[in-house]
Structure formats: C-alpha cells, structure tokens
Specification:
alpha/beta; Rossmann fold; 8-stranded parallel beta sheet; 6-stranded parallel beta sheet; 13 helices
C-alpha cells in the first residue's frame, strides 16, 4: 500500500488511529468498525497505522485513496493536523488501552493529537474501549485526554467507574453486520481456546464430547489467533474433532473461513472475546467454559446486556459442565435476541456519534456523561 500525504483537504477531514496487535483477527475487526465510523464522519481519511503491515491495512479496510501514515511519518501526521481546515474529526482506535507507565510516550502523543484537534475546533471521538493495568500516574494523564473528547465510550463498566467519564456500551464489534442464516443447519460445536492458558481437564473433554454427541454436533477446533494453533491441534486430537488452523491462508482468508464456520455453528466455546462476538454475530451461542477465566468476557458481554455465559471449569465435574452447556443451548433464542439488541444499540450509538462529529457546535451529553 502506498504511503502518502495529500495537500488536498476537505472541511470534513477525518484523522483516525489504527495501530494494534497484528496479526489478530479480533483487533482487526474492531478497527475496521472504527474506520467505518470515521468514514461516516467525513472524508478524506488520514490514518496513522504505526508499524502495521500492508495485510493489516487491507484487512481493516484502508485503500490507496486514504492518506496513510506509518511510524516514521509521525511528524508528517502532526503537520497534517496543523494544516487541516478547522472542524476536523479525530477518531481514536477502540479496544484495550494499556495504562502502564511504559506507555507514557504513546499516551502523550494521543494527548497531543487531542489538543491539536480541539485547538482546530474539531471533535475527538473515543469508540468503546477498556483500560488495562491502570497505573495512577497514567490514569491521571489519560483523564486529561478524556476531558478534551466529545464522545467517550467504554466497553465495560470498571473503566467507566475508574475515570468517571463516558458511557458504557457494547464492544464496537457488535456493530458489525450479523451474518449467517438462522434457519440454516448448524451442525458444529466450535472450540477456540488461548494457547497461553491452562489446558482444560479430562472432565472438560468428557463434558464437551458428551454434549456434542447428545446434540448431534461435529466438534471443530479453530484458531482465530496464530499463537493458538498448537492448542487448537491438541484439542482437536483429544476430542476427535476437525482442526482448522491458518495453514497457508493469510489473515483475510482465515477470517472468511471462520465466518463460514461460525455460520454453521450451534455453540462456540472460547476464552477470546472477539471469537465469541464474531461467532455470536454469525449465529452461534457464545460460551466461555475454561479453567480460571479472567473477568474480561463476562464484563464485556454484561455491558452488551448478555449474562450467564461464563463458567469456571477448574475443579468442576463433567456432569456440572455438561449441565452448563445444556443450559446455554437451551437459552438459544434469548441469547440471540440479546445479541441483536446489542447490535441495534451500537447502530444507534453510531448514528449519534456521526451527528456530533463534523463541524458540529454541540455535543451529545449522553455520550460523554462527565
């Protein structure tokens, strides 16, 4: 992809940060959605992508028509902001914000971007995010940027409680269009677990095999992140299921294949947030049944109005876990309705974000809630 900086500016210029954890299909998904929000706010788009590879840029939807700035172009990015007409929009990337002390350089840069935007009469949009490892000093620094923002959204409540600014809404991935026909056959039980966490017990394997057999489902183990491929192969072998890793496919091809798998799935078991959300949008029932789960999935789905999909498998009997899987499957219609409600809520938020962004003299106080 070509890197360039255009001298042709429009009154609805939009700047957007799109760095991330690449390669990671979930991170690409939420940045693709924030880029869509940016495009709705105006054109042309000037994207800062840091050290992202070309594949990442294509996957999130950037084109050669966009102004693309990499890490080496950071000064050019700031100069472009200074030269831009008044009233432009800055859309920051969604997802997890690391507030450890070693992140001070990036947080300082984001604060600088926000200050420049406000000095130019523009709007700063913060799509649904969460705070990770918040140190006291970095939290104070981060809150300065929040005070300069027209829209502050959080994808779980703990972050909102910490900074006391913004609104809790579903993760931006829920704004992705639902896919997968509800009436089509769903013969698969999909499993995708993190490779860096403890492998589930023999009792977990027994519960999963029994559930699949009782429901007439074929077990399919999938990798949505490359570092999970070894765990995916291990589980497929232990459960007698199909293994779908990346093989020779690039990330875009793998995402297309995973979407097809999710559209054929009845239930997806995972401890990865965006495996569960992308699977849910495809019609799967999301379920986190793993040893010692973190609270990430539970709190993020709770923000979307979806509860009771997580259970700790540590020390649980096969009978207990089978009962949980059966209960999840029995709530299919309710959970599907909740997923659709989360999607519609995000689409409403999306329209309100667009309304306050370009050259607007007002803010929507419900999207800031100071």
């Amino acid at each position: 992809m070509t890197t360039f900086s255009s001298d042709e500016q429009s009154e609805n210029k939009v700047f957007v940060t799109l760095t991330g954890d690449y390669p990671n299909i979930g991170d690409a998904l939420i940045r693709r959605r924030s880029l869509a929000w940016a495009r709705m706010c105006g054109q042309p788009v000037a994207a800062f992508v840091g050290r992202a590879p070309d594949m990442w840029c294509r996957q999130i939807g950037l084109t050669t028509q966009d102004d693309l700035y990499r890490q080496k172009d950071i000064k050019a990015w700031v100069i472009a902001m200074l030269r831009a007409p008044r009233g432009f929009t800055l859309v920051l990337e969604p997802g997890e914000v690391d507030l450890r002390l070693n992140q001070y350089k990036w947080e300082t840069m984001v604060l600088l971007f926000s200050v420049l935007t406000r000095l130019k009469g523009g709007r700063v949009i913060r799509p649904p995010r969460s705070l990770s490892h918040p140190s006291r000093a970095m939290t104070i620094w981060h809150k300065l940027g929040l005070q300069l923002s027209a829209v502050v959204l959080w994808r779980e409540s703990d972050s909102r409680t910490l900074v006391r600014t913004g609104r809790v809404v579903p993760d931006i991935a829920f704004s992705e269009a639902p896919y997968g026909e509800e009436s089509s056959p769903r013969p698969r039980l999909l499993i995708s677990l993190r490779g860096l966490r403890s492998r589930p017990s023999a009792a977990w394997e027994e519960a999963v095999r029994t559930f699949a057999r009782n429901q007439g489902l074929t077990i399919t183990c999938i990798a949505q992140v490359r570092q999970d491929e070894v765990r995916t192969a291990e589980l497929a072998s232990a459960l007698g299921g199909e293994c779908i890793d990346f093989g020779n496919r690039d990330d875009m091809e793998q995402e297309h294949l995973l979407r097809r798998m999710y559209s054929e799935g009845a239930v997806v078991i995972s401890d990865r947030l965006h495996v569960l959300i992308l699977g849910a949008l495809g019609g799967c029932i999301p379920c986190e049944l793993v040893p010692k789960p973190s609270n990430k999935v539970a709190t993020h789905f709770q923000a979307a109005g979806i509860t009771g999909i997580t259970q700790d498998a540590e020390g649980s009997s096969a009978a207990t876990m089978l009962s949980f899987l059966n209960s999840i499957h029995g709530r299919r219609d309710k959970i599907r309705a909740e997923v659709m409600a989360a999607h519609m809520q995000l689409k409403d938020i999306e329209s309100r974000v667009v309304a306050v962004s370009p050259l607007s003299a007002r803010e929507d106080p419900d999207l800031v809630q100071r």
